[in-house]
Amino acid sequence: LPVTSVDALAGTKHAITGGEDGMGWIWDTATGQPAMALPDSTGAIYSVAAHQADTEFVTIGGEDGKAYTYFWRTGFLKNTADPEDETAGPIYSLVGFQEWHLFGLGFKDGYVRI
Fold this sequence. Notes:
The chain is mostly beta strands. It has strands at residues 3-9, 14-19, 24-28, 33-38, 45-50, 57-62, 67-71, 76-81, 91-97, 102-107, 112-113. It has no helices and eleven strands. It starts with a strand and ends with a strand. InterPro entries: WD40/YVTN_repeat-like_dom_sf, WD40_repeat_dom_sf.
């Protein structure tokens, strides 16, 4: 299944990808092999992002309209952001704001939520 998003984990030899299989994947870029799967989403993953302020965390978002934040070294699910607006639809884009430890979520409805 196609990969829809990729981001590098700064200061490491790892990357994160997401795709239509509904999984976030942590990859060892030195070997090209998957190091871990992040399985909590209930649909395709359209966007992934490595946190800039705290490089231990990654966030994935997609078809189910939720953003999942993980401690990427263990796969521990730290947080699930579930916007209350049911009309928002899938998350198509994620961006981190380094100074504030916040994420912007871009939804199908054309709005960005912080």
